[in-house]
Write a structure and sequence with these properties.
295 residues; alpha+beta; seven-stranded antiparallel sheet; four-stranded parallel sheet; 32% helix
Length: 295
Amino acid sequence: MPTGFKKCIIALTGGFDKPFATIKKWIELQGGQCALKIGPNVTHLVCSEDHFKKGVAMVQQARKLKKCKIVTWDWLEDSLLAKRPLRTGEFLLKGQVKTKAKVKATRKETRDDNIIKGVGLFEKSCDEFKDKMYTDGYHIYRDRTGFSYDITLARSDLTTNTNARYFLKVSSFPYSMNLSTPLYPYILPRHSRVPLPAPRTQCLQLYESHISPSKYACFSSYSSPTAGTATHVLAPLGSSFSLAIGQFMHFFKLKTKLEWKERNGTLGDESETAFLYTPPAEGEPWGEVDPASIW
């Protein structure tokens, strides 16, 4: 009978692919012993990462024993195949968990840096768009309270670890642009395939013409890691205020799951698909409760 494990007394905690009875048999066939609980003679605790992080009772007890090594399932499996207990260095759970935490922290730092850089580039693009609009004859609309209809919505996507932004704008003065919009896209031929952007950040802005009688238009801009930055028309240039502000509020609700008049009093939908709106700071204009009602 093999005796490679004759000095090993092994305990187990956590979920493994094989039933305990089978694992116990394997250990005993190699000359080792399988313990049901932690005792002073236990040499190894084979532990799942989940139980190690939770610090279950067996883990806490094993940590108090100088000679007891808390190892991964891979150590036991590889040792059984080798028919002798392998060195535990690379299989110690403490080291593996620390390494994973360090890698995770590095990835988060890189992700945060990329988001900050992406947001900066996107906001620069939106500022350039505002400059062009002003040169062409219109400016960001402000209501009677002094609130500027120039807002940013953002969400963080857990799948791609990226951030996207949208603008909503109201303006007037015709010039060439893409009239296909997220709300009213072109009708495509049957079976056609198009890449759909997955925006992480959106800007919503409302423009008013410099000259009277005032005309308006409503745009949305977004950035995404796959589609870059794009601007779409929600209400065409030269629109009435009621059409432009209606589209502004409709788009806001579509993205935040909030009515415009509810924007300052609730967090709204916090799901991954919803965008978040940050109200103005205390002391700054918060805008009309229902701007459409004053026209």
